[in-house]
Write a structure and sequence with these properties.
With 252 residues, this protein is of the alpha/beta class.
Length: 252
């Protein structure tokens, strides 16, 4: 990543935080959690997670005394956490970050096996800092995301005259792998259009949760799967994704 891209991403983060939604509610910025870790040449792949919306409970002490809702950086808050106990601030966050950390570890440490390590999220929590993470909706949300609301925010951002934050962020973050946690449906209709190839099924072994595809577009791997807060077991969730990574590796 160029220094100019880094600077541009920081500019976008500031614009997101400053966006006024009315009634004293402002945006929550996101992006690369730790630039040194994300751009480290020793890191096998650059990974971007695209999730739904941020939660106000994830903010850190530096934001608590602010009277307004929002107006803070999720990326900065996660980067400043030094342990698993500090990483998790809400019940929803437990599952989300647990699966995110274990899956990221599995992707970056594939060695012929699935790469999954059970209950590794406490020891390997620093893998959270090796990724970028953005939300479709930049406005603080509640415990349950509403699909219609997330879609409205996506359309506002990507429509003519919209902020264009998502497209700019994805381009500047320049990931090798994008994992869409329940968000691919928004991008599928408007982001790819004719260039989207036929989907390839994830190797899903859970009989109750059979959703998931992956796509290879311009050499990059796009994974359409559940949000990491889903009920699917951590190992199943992680292995479905890491196996798709292996198939992609064999093709490139």
């Amino acid at each position: 990543m160029k220094d100019s891209d880094h600077d541009r991403l920081k500019e976008i983060e500031e614009k997101i935080k400053a966006k006024d939604y009315g009634e004293n509610v402002f945006g929550v910025s996101d992006g690369v959690i730790c630039f040194d870790e994300y751009t480290d040449k020793k890191t096998k792949y650059k990974i971007l997670w695209i999730l739904r919306e941020p939660y106000e409970s994830d903010k850190i002490k530096e934001n608590i005394n602010k009277e307004k809702v929002g107006g803070w950086s999720l990326a900065s808050a996660l980067n400043k956490r030094e342990s698993w106990e500090q990483t998790v601030k809400s019940k929803g966050g437990v599952q989300t970050y647990r699966k995110l950390i274990q899956t990221t570890y599995a992707i970056l440490n594939t060695d012929g096996n699935d790469g999954f390590k059970k209950n590794s999220y406490k020891k390997d929590f620093d893998y959270l800092k090796k990724v970028a993470c953005i939300n479709v909706k930049k406005m603080p949300g509640k415990s349950n995301s509403k699909d219609k609301v997330i879609l409205q925010h996506y359309l506002r951002d990507t429509s003519q005259g919209g902020t264009g934050f998502l497209k700019q962020q994805i381009k500047l973050i320049d990931p090798d792998i994008i994992i869409y946690g329940g968000t691919f449906k928004y991008f599928k209709k408007n982001h790819f259009k004719e260039e989207l190839p036929a989907p390839k099924k994830l190797n899903n072994t859970n009989s109750f949760l059979k959703k998931g595809n992956y796509y290879i577009i311009d050499g990059k791997l796009h994974i359409d799967t559940y949000h990491p807060s889903c009920r699917m077991k951590d190992e199943c969730y992680s292995n479905n994704i890491s196996r798709a990574v292996k198939k992609w590796e064999n093709q490139i």
